[in-house]
Amino acid sequence: MPHGLNSRLSSATALCSLLAAATWTAPARTGEIPDFYKGRTLIVVVGHETGTGFDLYGRLMARHFGRHVPGNPSVVVQNMPGGGGLNSAQWLYNAAPKDGTTLAIFAHTAPFEPLLGDGKARLDGAMFTWIGNLEETAAICAVTQSSGVMNSHDFLTKGILVGSSGGPLGVFPTTLRKLLGANLKLIHGYKGSADVKLAMQRGEVQSICGISISTLKSQWANELTSGAVKVVMQFGRNKHPDMPGVDHIYDHAKTPIDHQVFDLVYGATSLGRPLAAPPGLPPDRTDALRKAFNEMIVNMEFLTDAEKSRLDLSPASGEQIEALVKRLYRSPSEIVDKAKAASRIE
Predict the structure, then answer these.
(1) Of 3.40.190.150, 3.30.830.10, 3.40.50.2300, 3.40.50.1000, which CATH number belongs to 3-136+271-343?
(2) Is the pLDDT of residue 27 over 50?
(3) The pTM is what?
(4) What is the sign of the dihedral through the CA atoms of 124, 127, 132 and 136?
């Protein structure tokens, strides 16, 4: 068995007993859920452009999810890019059908926009119906070889051009400027990581900051292997085992307050590839969709497909994601205020 698949199986097996326990807590009458989904189409909205990591994970899930939902609905993907995933999150929260036929996957920054953004977001991240999470993301900053940047010190001081969009690709470099005093020049207006990648190849910008390690490994493998791009910083709750020797954001925390702010700004990357449904979903359909997700992530066909697609998996249940989001929403006001000021893209 390939080593990568073995690691994915180990990760999934470690969670298997926990996820298997998340069965229907309020089962519907026999046949009710299968009858509802039979012959229907379940839509998965990806809040990012085609070819991004979120798109790849969304399409991976769509290829397998329907087999585990009672009634075996067909599953189709629709892209709704904009605002770093915020557009799709707001649509899901306010306009999508609340009947269990529409789900969405979007960046971890979107559900926390009401907490850390400008107050204009029309959603409450703690109120989504969380179905599960495909990957606990760790994010990175990478630079082109031609930038001359060799390490994090160079990255933070040389004044290089960073391609920026909404979501993590805007928030992460912005927070580095405000929290660490980084000399970074943000070039706004890109649609997402695929767009910034092209800009780096054209020499318009020299860096991208805030993409996940899984996206880097799956979509930037050739650039990494050739040395055309180099990783100079990593983010997340823990140092990533695939990034030995790469500077970690928590190395720059000077006080306990800094650490708590970093937890809120960067630690939320653990909500990496979340699958959400609108608030107010009927409980029996919530249970059915969560059970389907939990079954899918330990299914051999799904794991093999993820391996072939070079997509890392570190899944979590809908209940775990719900608890994480609610905990972060309860962060002390002093920490929220500091994180909010640092996250505001200008």
Answers:
(1) 3.40.190.150
(2) no
(3) 0.76
(4) positive
Question: What is the pLDDT, as a whole number, of residue 10?
Answer: 42
pLDDT at position 25 is 38
Q: Using one digit for the tens of pLDDT, what is the confidence trace for 186-229?
A: 999 998 888 999 999 999 999 999 998 888 888 898 999 999 99
Q: Report how far Cα 277 is from the mean position of its chain's Cα atoms.
A: 15
Cα(205)–Cα(266) distance, integer angstroms: 23
Q: Find out whether 34 and 291 touch, Cβ atoms under 8 Å.
A: no
Residues 6+ apart with CB under 8 A from 201: none
The one-letter amino acid code at 299 reads N
Angle between helices 168-180 and 256-265 (to 10 degrees): 170
Question: Which residues, 6 or more positions from 72, have their beta carbon under 8 angstroms from its beta carbon?
Answer: 37, 38, 66
Confirm if 84 and 169 have CB atoms less than 8 A apart.
Answer: yes
Give the pLDDT of residue 259: 87
